[in-house]
């Protein structure tokens, strides 16, 4: 993988920043019913995920579609109830909040969706879209609301502000729509931003601008960002650490450079060779894409969930025992029996 | 200097766009009205052709006149002394006079065109056989007399049906997959049976067997004189037909709306609203009901004008003196003026509703621009 010019250089040393969000042994299972009645098992969408996110830290969660990224994200947003495990925000369990505390939590977490057009209600002008979070959180003064909307729009470079205030989403371009979505996520000045593939639906020409914008916002407000994507090539724009997710579990956690230069898990290695940099030289290179398909989340494979597709399987170990998490270098850990010792 | 020319340019531009909007609206309205009018004309003319059975009703009427006049003259003692020839002459003369009075001496094609002109100008004329309760043959009187009873029955049951199904559907879409949801979905095929089918069973159970409710009619005979008692009596008579109408479509209607709301509640912006921490009620009002408003308004408007036709068979079953039963009798009696009048009023109501709805859409949905495609 060639070097991306804009890739920031983050320090890889253990930082002393306070933990903002702590996910502990999170499980999100969905019950399946046969013909709408009898119990027919669970979809193990998220199955034992743990990580800490520091204040001002940006992480990326990568994985194929159907690996449980979105379920994890929705659990963090408080939209999915965890089946087991806890999500702590500033040390408090978000699923034990009462209504007022919940509203406070929602104002601390911004959410940027994948499809900007779908994320904006088509019957509301931009001003109304941005005003609503303020109204919900009880900003009574109309002038103050307008002032904050103006500030928020300038921050995402939707200027001149007046030109966009009364526009409806369908009158804006894709990039402008995504700026409105970001402005809406930022208007409450959150501490955490959850971005679910924020650029995958945009034109290539607009992607870099939106990514730069997100990074500028992150630096200015010392935001923590969870960036969810299936596209490794955009990760290095503004992430410190990458988590690789497979079949509901985080199988490798590492700083960006460490993961890209020295991928440990066979799945990560395969994923990286499968990543296409927009470079003509890559057009003819052979890409070793992992054979087979992601496993069923209803009956996940025994042992390591990747073992049916793995080329370096250890018979009698990988297909029997679930791998433990091994730390192979500073802040780089992997769940794979190859690194047992 | 440059700025002033710029601002005056902007003003001129704004004026121009405002004028453009007005001409666009006017042109659109004109084109739309003309096309709707053509639709109405075609619909009404087809109704005239069908209600007259392509002119065959004229033959039937001629036959009736011939028979009536021959019988009345041959049985009239005043003409007993006339010879057969003289009597025939008399009969022919009277038939010719009667046919001329009814316009039957003209070919049907010409008559149909004059029917059309009268119908379009809301000049309904006189019924052939039917009379109003006060004995008038004025078609407009016959129909207007029936309107209140239809409105009372259908207005009540359809409005109840509409609001109950929309609100239950909204609640169900929130509890998608619950027991209540499954029961409603399972029951929705019951709406395949028309209301009169339920009516027959309701009459059998509650009128014939349990004897708690009347078989039919609108009030008891003789009707109560006290106002309150009259209203109560009307209410008791309304229970069975209203339940039949309600039962026959409630489940399908809830199912329809619930599926419709479900589609809209899976939009990204609804998810976003949840993530922002809006309450379920606010989400329903602002993010689900709001974008579905055009559809809700449309079906409500169509429901309102649908009251005009009533329900032909259901009213007949329950002996309800409404427009539907009047239409049923008119069809049986070949009373074409009544049939045509009922149709033309519905056609006009429908055309006006469609026209007005276009503008309502533009008000409700910012993406819709009236005449924007032109």
Summarize the structure.
Chain A is an alpha/beta fold and 341 residues long. Chain A has helices at residues 69-77, 99-108, 116-119, 126-136, 142-155, 161-165, 174-186, 204-221, 232-235, 256-261, 266-274; strands spanning 19-34, 38-54, 58-62, 84-89, 92-93, 109-112, 192-196, 224-229, 241-246, 249-255, 325-329, 332-335.
Q: Overview of this structure, please?
A:
The complex is a heterodimer of chains A (about 350) and B (about 375). By secondary structure, chain A is α/β, with parallel strands linked by helices. Chain A has a single domain, classed as 3-Layer(aba) Sandwich (Rossmann fold), CATH 3.40.50. Helices cover about 30% and strands about 25% of the residues of chain A. Chain A has eleven helices and twelve strands. Chain A has an eight-stranded mixed β-sheet. Chain A has a four-stranded antiparallel β-sheet with strand order 2-1-4-5. The longest helix of chain A is centred in the middle third of the chain and has 18 residues, at about 205-220. The longest helix of chain B has about 50 residues, at about 1-50. In chain B, helix 8 (about 225-265) crosses helix 10. Chain B has helices at about 1-50, 55-75, 85-100, 110-120, 140-175, 180-185, 195-210, 225-265, 270-275, 280-305, 310-315, 325-330, 335-365. Chain B folds into two domains: about 30-120, no CATH class; about 140-365, Orthogonal Bundle (MetI-like fold). Chain B contains 13 helices and no strands. At the A-B interface, helix 2 and helix 4 of A face helix 9 and helix 10 of B.
């Amino acid at each position: 993988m060639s070097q991306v010019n804009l890739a920031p250089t983050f320090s890889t040393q253990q930082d002393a920043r306070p933990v903002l969000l702590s996910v502990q042994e999170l499980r999100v299972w969905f019950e399946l019913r046969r013909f709408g009645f009898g119990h027919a098992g669970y979809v193990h969408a998220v199955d034992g995920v743990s990580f800490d996110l520091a204040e001002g830290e940006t992480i990326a969660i990568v994985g194929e579609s159907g690996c449980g990224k979105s379920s994890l994200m929705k659990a963090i947003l408080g939209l999915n109830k965890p089946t087991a495990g806890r999500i702590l925000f500033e040390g408090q369990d978000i699923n034990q909040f009462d209504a007022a505390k919940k509203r406070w939590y929602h104002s601390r977490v911004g959410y940027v969706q994948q499809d900007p057009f779908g994320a904006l209600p088509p019957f509301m002008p931009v001003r109304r879209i941005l005003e609503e979070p303020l109204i919900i959180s009880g900003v009574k003064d109309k002038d103050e609301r307008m002032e904050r909307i103006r500030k928020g729009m300038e921050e995402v470079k939707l200027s001149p502000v007046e030109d966009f205030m009364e526009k409806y989403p369908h009158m804006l371009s894709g990039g402008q729509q995504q700026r409105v979505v970001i402005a809406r996520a930022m208007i409450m000045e959150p501490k955490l931003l959850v971005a679910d593939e924020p650029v995958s639906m945009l034109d290539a020409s607009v992607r870099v601008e939106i990514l730069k914008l997100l990074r500028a916002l992150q630096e200015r407000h010392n935001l923590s960002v969870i960036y969810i994507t299936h596209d490794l090539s955009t990760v290095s724009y503004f992430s410190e650490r990458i988590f690789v997710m497979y079949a509901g579990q985080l199988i490798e956690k590492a700083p960006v450079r460490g993961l890209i230069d020295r991928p440990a898990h066979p799945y990560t290695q395969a994923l990286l060779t499968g990543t296409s940099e927009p470079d003509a030289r890559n057009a003819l290179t052979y890409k070793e894409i992992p054979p087979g398909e992601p496993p069923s989340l209803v009956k996940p494979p025994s042992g390591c969930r990747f073992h049916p597709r793995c080329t370096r399987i250890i018979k009698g170990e990988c297909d029997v025992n679930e791998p433990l998490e091994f730390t192979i270098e500073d802040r780089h850990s992997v769940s794979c029996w190859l690194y047992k010792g | 200097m440059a700025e002033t020319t710029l601002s005056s340019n902007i003003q001129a531009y704004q004026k121009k766009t405002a004028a453009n909007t007005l001409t666009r609206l006017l042109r659109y309205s004109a084109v739309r009205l003309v096309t709707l009018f053509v639709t109405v004309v075609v619909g009404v003319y087809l109704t005239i052709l069908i209600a007259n059975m392509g002119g065959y009703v004229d033959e039937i009427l001629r036959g009736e006149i011939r028979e009536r006049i021959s019988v009345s003259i041959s049985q009239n003692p005043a003409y007993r002394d006339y010879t057969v020839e003289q009597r025939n002459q008399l009969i022919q003369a009277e038939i010719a006079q009667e046919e001329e009075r009814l316009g039957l001496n003209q070919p049907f094609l010409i008559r149909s065109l004059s029917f059309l002109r009268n119908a379009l100008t809301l000049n309904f004329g006189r019924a052939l056989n039917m009379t109003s309760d006060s004995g008038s043959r004025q078609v407009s009187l016959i129909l207007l007399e029936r309107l209140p009873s239809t409105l009372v029955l259908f207005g009540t049951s359809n409005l109840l049906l509409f609001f109950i199904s929309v609100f239950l559907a909204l609640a169900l879409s929130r509890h998608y997959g619950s027991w209540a949801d499954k029961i409603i979905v399972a029951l929705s095929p019951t709406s395949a049976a028309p209301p009169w089918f339920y009516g027959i069973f309701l009459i059998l159970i509650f009128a014939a067997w349990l004897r708690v409710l009347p078989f039919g009619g609108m009030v008891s005979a003789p009707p109560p004189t006290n106002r309150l008692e009259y209203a109560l009596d009307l209410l008791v008579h309304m229970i069975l037909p209203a339940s039949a109408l309600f039962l026959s479509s409630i489940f399908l209607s809830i199912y329809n709306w619930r599926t419709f709301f479900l589609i809209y509640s899976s939009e990204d912006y609804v998810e976003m609203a949840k993530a922002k921490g809006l309450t379920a009620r606010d989400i329903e009002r602002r993010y689900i009901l709001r974008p579905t408003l055009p559809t809700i308004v449309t079906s409500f408007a169509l429901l309102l004008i649908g009251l005009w036709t009533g329900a032909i068979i259901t009213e007949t079953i329950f002996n309800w003196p409404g427009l539907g039963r009047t239409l049923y009798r008119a069809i049986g009696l070949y009373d074409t003026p009544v049939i045509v009048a009922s149709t033309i009023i519905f056609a006009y109501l429908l055309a006006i509703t469609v026209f007005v709805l276009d503008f309502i859409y533009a008000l409700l949905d910012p993406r819709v621009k009236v005449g924007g495609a032109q």
